[in-house]
Amino acid sequence: MVDYVFMQVKSILTADQFSRQDLDLILKNTARIESLLKKHKQLNILDKYILATMFFEPSTRTRLSFESAMHRLGGRVVSAVGMQFSSMAKGETLYDTLKVMESYADICAIRHPVEGASIVASKSISIPVINAGDGAGEHPTQAILDLYTISVHKDIAGKNIQIGFVGDIKYGRTIHSLIKLLSKFNASFTFISPAEIGLPEKYKKDLNQMNIKFTETNDIEALTECDVGYITRIQEERFSDHATFDQFKDLYVINKKFLKTCRKDIIIMHPLPRLNEVSTDIDSMPQAVYFKQAEYGLYSRMTLLLYVTGLLDKLDEFS
Ligand code: NCD
What we know:
By secondary structure, the chain is an alpha/beta fold. The chain contains 10 helices and 9 strands.
């Protein structure tokens, strides 16, 4: 658990930090932004603010949706992408890089290969830090957009929802954050993966402590009993041994034939990028929501930028 005492400003570091009340507020405002944006295209609330996107690992959706979110809120963006193109390639430490950046920006979204990097960042600087993925640790803002996606399709405040997580559950940081958020709702989990890339013990311990029901299996048939299928890529970059990665990479494939055996109203989610685990032959089926999910990243991240700056109330000025 993160020690929040050091947090002088509102940062987003882990999914643990959100109460059910916070999540309800974030979901409500994300829906509001989704509809306001259709009408207004731009909501000029952060016009005096600059966001720094500091991405030291590859990214498409997360960085672009953060940057687009900032632009749609009337704000500006400065960006350092890839260690090889920043002074870190010359040997500068992350600490020095961030200390310099904080005088150029008001909010920092950071992606870094080391678990816990965003916590270190938030201890080093005095502007809000947003964890945009820290190694195999967490990805809380992805989890927020995933939660929003589920809430659009399923009654998460009401009946028990069965979520099946498929693929790389060991290194999949989006899963780690999403189970923390879903634990605040009425959800049960089925983890479908080979044991070698199953859910790490620390997350199981937390689920047990909260009395949350979960099962683990390597059998993809278990997905046919679920309301939501959350499919993930095997995280090649986290494996020290390539043979293990090769062994798992094409193990599960969700295609049209398999989908016919699932519940009719199942939704298939994926944080993307996908490899072969979700076949393109289901892309146009109503169950496939992953491109919509990526779109929801824009609205969710607009909400989160207003959340960290304490300006969510400014949405009241738009109708
Ligand atoms: C995920 C990530 O970076 O953890 N992608 C994303 O942010 N949408 C998932 C992945 O890389 O497999």
